[in-house]
Amino acid sequence: MNDHNLQHTLASPGAAAVPTAAAAWRRTLPALLLALVWIVVCYRATALGMVGIWARSETFAHGFIVPPIVLWLIWRDRTRLAALTPQPSPWLLLPFAGAGFAWLLGELAAVNVVAQFAFTALLVLAVPAVLGLRVARALAFPLAFLFFAVPFGEFAMPQLMEWTAQFTVLGLRLSGVPVYREGLNFVIPSGHWSVVEACSGVRYVIASLTVGTLFAYLSYRSLGRRLLFVGVSLLVPVVANWLRAYLIVMLGHLSGNKLAAGVDHLIYGWLFFGLVILAMFWIGARWREDLVPPAAPQPPAPASVAAPSFGASGAPWAACAVMALALLWPLAEGRIEGGGATEAAADVRLAALGDIPGWQAMPAPPSDWRPRFDNPAASLNEGFASDRGEVGVFIGYYRRQDDSRKLVSSENALVKSSDLFWMRLAGGQRTVFVGEQPLVVRTALLRGPDRRRLAVWQWYWVGGRLTASDALAKVYTALARLAGRGDDSAVVILYAPGAAEDAAASAAPSVPSAASESSGPAALAAFARAAAPAIEAALRRTAATP
C-alpha cells in the first residue's frame, strides 16, 4: 500500500504542487490585500479626487466600472492563478519607489493626472512586489486595464475640435454650402455654428478605446489582432465624430434649423456614435479567437534562473516594505507643504510695475477683455501708451497652489468657449525679446463683440524662469518646491488692439512689416522689450514678500 502511494505520488508531480501553491497563496494574499488597502488610505486624497472627477464628468464616468471589471478579470482566471506559486520579488520595490516619487512631483507641481497615474502605478506595482513576476505576468492585462480609471485624455480636446471644424467645413463646401469660417466658428446661409468642447468627440474616443481594449483582450489571442482592433477603436470614433458633426449641421441646414438644434443634436450624436461602435464590434467579432483553445502553458523557469525573491514565507516582509515606501512620499509632501497655505495665499500683494521707459500709464486698460485665469492670489490689469500704440498688461500671481488655485490648468484660458462676447480666432508661437532675453511666447488673435481684434502674447514666470510651455512651467514649479523655494509663479499676458491683418500677423512667427509698425504686434514687441525689467523686478519683489 505504501509502495502504491509512493508510485502514485511520483506519477503525479502536480499533486504535491497544488498544496504548496495553496499554502503560498494563504500567506501572500492577505499581505497583498493589506498593502493595497494601506496604499489607498495613504493616498486617499488622490483616490477621492479621481472618484470626484468620475462623478461630475460624463467623459470619465466609465471610471466607476473599471475597478469592478479588473476584479472580474482576475476572478475569471482564478483557476490558472491558483496553479502558480507566488513568491515576492524585492527588486520591484525600486520601481515602486519611483512611482511614489512621481506622485510627489505631481503633487508639488499640482498636476493631478501625474499624481493619479502614479497612485494607480503604486497599486499595480504592489502586486508583483508581493506576489512575484510570474503571477504579475498572468495578471498583466487586468493590472494594465486599471489605468483606464485615471481621468486622462482631455489634452487632446483642442486638436480634436480643430480637426472636427476642418472636416465639417470641407464637407459643407463639397456639398455646395457656402461657409465663412473664423477659428472654430463658421457661418452658413441658414445660421451660425460653433465647435465647442462637447463637439470634440473626446468622450467618444475615450469610451471607444476603453471598451475596444477590453473587447480585443476577450475576443482575440494573438497580439497582432489585439493591437489592430485597439487601433481601430481609436481611429473609428474620431472619423465618426467628424461625420456626426457634418451630418448634424447638414440636418439643421436642410430643415431650416428645426432639427438638430439645441440639445437634441447631442442625442443624435450619441445615437450615431452608438450605431458606429456596434458596427465596429460586429465586424471585429467575425475574427474572434476566444473560442480557440489556448496554447499549452509553458513550463516554469528553472529555479537557477528565477528572479530574486524573498520566498513565499517572505510575503509579510515584502508587504511591510511596500507599506513603508508608500507612507514615505505623503510624509515628504506634508513636510514640504508646511502649514498656513490659505493665509499665505490671501496675503499676497502684487508689487506695482512703476515707470516703463518710453511708455505712459493709461487711466484704464485699452480693452475691456480680461483673460480667464481662475483664483490668482493677486493680479493686475493696466494699460500703457506710446507713439507705438496702446498695450495692456495682465499679470496673475499664484502662491500655495492647489486644485482650486493653480497657474497651469485646463480651466485657465484666454477665452473660454462659453464666452458670449469674445472668441479665439487663431494661435501660434513667436520668438520675441523680453528685455535682452529671447523667448518663445504663445500668441493668439481674439475678436470682440464689435469685431474688434486683439493681438495677445503670453508666457509664464516661475521663480525667475521664463517659459511659454505648460509642461516646463509645471516642471519648474516642482523643482522649486523640492528645493524649498516655494511655488511662487505668474502668468504674464500682453495685449494690444490692431487691425485684422496686423493682428493676424502676430500669430505667425514672422517679423512685422514696415507698414504695420504702429499696429498691435509692433506695439507688443516694443513694450515687451521696454517693460520686461520692470515686470521681472515686480515679480521678484512680490516673491520676496512673506
Large-scale geometry: flat
Number of contiguous helices? 18
Cα-based radius of gyration, to the nearest Å:
29 Å
Report the β-strand fraction as a percent range: 5-15%
Overall mean pLDDT stands at 82
Distance between the termini: 87 Å
The count of DSSP E runs of length 2 or more, i.e. the number of strands, is 11
Question: How is the main sheet built?
Answer: 8 strands, antiparallel
Order of helices and strands: HHHHHHHHHHEEEHHHHHEEEEEEEHEHH
Structural class: alpha+beta
Helix content: 40-55%
Query: How many structural domains does the protein architecture include?
Result: 3
Low-confidence stretches: 1-18, 301-309, 339-345, 500-518
Question: What keywords describe this structure?
Answer:
546 residues, alpha+beta, eight-stranded antiparallel beta sheet, three-stranded antiparallel beta sheet, 18 helices, 51% helix, 14% strand
Please sum up the structure shown.
It contains 18 helices and eleven strands.
Provide structural commentary:
The chain is flat and about 85 Å long. A hairpin with a 2-residue loop joins β9 (453-462) and β10 (465-467). It starts with a helix and ends with a helix. α7 packs antiparallel against α14 (315-337). Helices cover 51% and strands 14% of the residues. Residues 1-18, 301-309, 339-345 and 500-518 have low confidence and may be disordered. The strands form 2 sheets. Strands 4, 5, 6, 7, 8, 9, 10 and 11 form an 8-stranded antiparallel beta sheet that branches. A 3-stranded antiparallel beta sheet has the order 1-2-3, with no helix packed on it. The protein has 3 domains: 17-132 and 309-337, no CATH class; 155-287, no CATH class; 343-544, no CATH class. It is an alpha+beta fold.
